[in-house]
Amino acid sequence: MLTDPNWLILACALHSAAFAVFHLGFWRLFDWPRTLQATTHANRAIVQIANAQLVYVFAAIALLCVTMPETLSGSYLGRAVLGGVAGFWWLRLVLQGVWLRVHHPLVHGLSVAFLVGALLFTAAAARAVPS
User: Fold this and answer.
1) Tens of pLDDT along 1-14?
2) What is the pTM (predicted TM-score) of this model?
3) Domains identified in the chain, total number
4) Residue 2 domain flag
5) What are the contacts of 63-68 at 24+ separation with CB within 8 A?
């Protein structure tokens, strides 16, 4: 993989695919929708819809990285996409500290995974050479 000139973008694909699969497991992991019964109908719907949309976004990013690495690394639009996803992960990492201040190894592990995504996509965007 490291011999491929687009190895960094392929690593981004793996990271995104892993998060798509992780988010698919939220219904089981968090016992949805049962554990959401204490909130309003609208909040139950919003949480589950937002999660389903995240699965779609992560899967779409993974697919783009696998099927169009040259376009992502060789165009201004590709660089903007990679930079936008990097921004998503940097923001996610910051918001983790704002809204989920839980001192637990799993939460810290997630923070590391967000940092990895931020670094991967930032490096891929910075390395991209638009033609």
Assistant:
1) 556 679 999 999 99
2) 0.92
3) 1
4) no
5) 63/13, 64/13, 65/9, 65/10, 65/12, 65/13, 65/16, 66/10, 66/13
pLDDT tens, 43-76? Answer: 999 999 999 999 999 999 999 999 999 999 999 9
Q: Give the gyration radius of the chain's Cα atoms.
A: 16
Rounded to 5 degrees, what are φ and ψ at 48? -70, -40
CB 61 within 8 A of CB 85: yes
Q: At what angle do helices 41-67 and 7-24 cross, to 10 degrees?
A: 150
Domain range for 92 is 7-127
Residue 5 DSSP SS3? coil
CA dist., res. 19 & res. 63, Å (int): 13
